[in-house]
Specification:
Strand order of the largest sheet: 3-2-1-4-5-6
Radius of gyration: 19 Å
Structural class: alpha/beta
Strand content: 5-15%
Number of domains: 2
Low-confidence stretches: none
CATH class of the largest domain: Alpha Beta
Shape: elongated
Largest sheet: 6 strands, parallel
């Protein structure tokens, strides 16, 4: 019997990549307007190339970007980019459709927790922005174990907090490589959030989750 449901956060509950892309476009537009001599598409491609290397939560990305493309950091240009990024980002943190009513129904009978690779403060800021800061039994982030999924440490930490066995837990995530594969190896039940953004899909397309979600509300039938 499933006693707890573990949710990845970004691209499972919140449409993180949409927010990230639109915010970065605003930042690039602002930096170009402030004097960055670069075509927008090339700038976006370069920015996300650097994100791929450093991680999507890297806090000094615009400093790194300017040094990479111009050889130096123009703080006036960088400031314009940061301000534009933050202004747009703060207005774009929304849960996917049906997330909140689905979670409210699940938590009546089961424990629900967050298991995210995001830094602690970033995870809590997103939850607060969506009005979901008090919905979860635990919010487990990178800061708790200093290991990111697909490492096993976050999953083991979650089991310890929940005081449950893997087979009593369902892991829900958008990443076949980061969420589904490691959870399956450890004995968790798994549900793949197909509606989310999965950068590992091409690499691990043979991984099969126990369930595939076209919409998060599909969980309600699974947990009946």
């Amino acid at each position: 019997m499933i006693k707890a449901v573990l949710f990845d956060l970004d691209n499972t509950l919140v449409d993180f990549m949409r927010m990230k892309t639109i915010s970065c476009e605003a930042a690039i537009d602002a930096m170009i307007k402030a004097g960055l001599d670069m075509e927008k598409k090339k700038a976006m491609d370069t920015l996300f190339y650097l994100y791929d290397k450093k991680g999507l939560e890297y806090q000094k990305i615009f400093q790194l970007f300017l040094r990479h493309v111009t050889g130096k950091v123009d703080y006036g240009i960088m400031a314009c980019g940061i301000v534009a990024y933050r202004r747009v980002k703060d207005g774009l943190i929304y849960p996917y459709k049906n997330v909140i009513p689905t979670l409210n129904k699940i938590k009546k009978k089961r424990k629900i927790i967050i298991l995210s690779n995001a830094p602690r403060i970033q995870a809590w800021l997103r939850l607060a922005a969506m009005g979901m800061h008090d919905m979860f039994e635990h919010v487990i982030t990178f800061d708790d174990t200093k290991v990111r999924k697909p490492g096993k440490e976050p999953f083991l930490y979650a089991l310890k907090k929940l005081k449950l066995k893997p087979e009593e837990c369902l892991m829900v995530g958008d990443s076949l490589g980061g969420d589904i594969l490691p959870a399956k190896k450890m004995g968790f039940k798994t549900a793949y959030a197909k509606y989310g953004f999965d950068p590992t899909m091409c690499e691990v397309s043979k991984v099969k989750a126990d369930y595939v979600l076209e919409d998060i509300k599909d969980l309600l039938k699974i947990l009946e």
